[in-house]
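Protocol step 4 of 6.
Sequence for Transketolase (Cronobacter muytjensii) entered exactly as in the expression construct, tag removed. Do not edit the line below.
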Amino acid sequence: MSNTLTSKPRLTTSAMIASIADEGQETRAAPFGHALVDLAQQRPEIVGMTADLAKYTDLHIFANAFPQRFFQMGMAEQLLMGAAGGMAKEGFTPFVTTYAVFATRRAYDFIHQVIAEENLNVKICAALPGLTTGYGPSHQATEDLAIMRGIPGMTIIDPCDALDTAQAVTAIADHQGPVYMRLLRGKVPVVLDKYDYQFEVGKAKLLEEGNEVLIISSGIMTMRALEAAAQLRKDNIGVAVLHVPTIKPLDEETIVAQASKPGRLVITAENHSAVGGLGEAVAALLMRRGVRAQLDTVGLPDEFLLAGALPTLHDRYGISTAMMVQKIKSRL
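Step 5 output, structure tokens:
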């Protein structure tokens, strides 16, 4: 019997952490941290606060640059949010970082009561959104958008890449009121530079045109949507890609205008549970406006997800580029 086995390369534990860049893809290191430092040089009211996760949210770059404006609150997320609210009342603009699960699930009441009810100028930037870690339900924030969408006055941002993340830092600092932003950290892909892109709070951006399919996407799924569109074009399937970086408030007019074009399959794509995220927000919008469209969604199932290597999990739960292409072809 031969001892030679043919198999895929073995995935190591590094494949479980929040790296979303493909091999050889252009990346930019710590776009959030560097953008915040650049902005803080002109904005003395900006402070950085975290719950023992500066290194893992790229806030350590800010801490090194402005040690007197950095506050390490320890593993106490409720205290972190309460203190951020107090800082905002004193005229500061706190940029608060932790993991998305801890911000939304553990500290929700403090965000709701201390920050949002008083419309305070706190910017919550939360790492490991959706399925960007393989460490199981304790760290997978698959429901964070649903949780935060229910808070009145909360602006919600889900950036696609390093460019989106960096530009959003300045935009949310200028925006008055609380913001929840999904944070892409580490070596983050750069994909939107090809589209003369400029982030604006509350605005969707049409990146690609196509007659057969419209993908309405947010976050890292816009990167996957662009990859899927390129693959489908080889089969003469035209795919439009509408990037929606602001989940709340939605750019309703742009979404309705694009979804109203006749004869196109409309697919929403999100790195989030199918419950309570972009897909349901778009579906409710189109129903209210009387838009009749073939509508389907690419998103995570309504269940607790497994631990494992991210590439395997993304295939299993349908948010990889290959699975998106397969779904679109099956619908067409």
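Step 6, annotate. Residues 1-6 have pLDDT under 50 and may be disordered.
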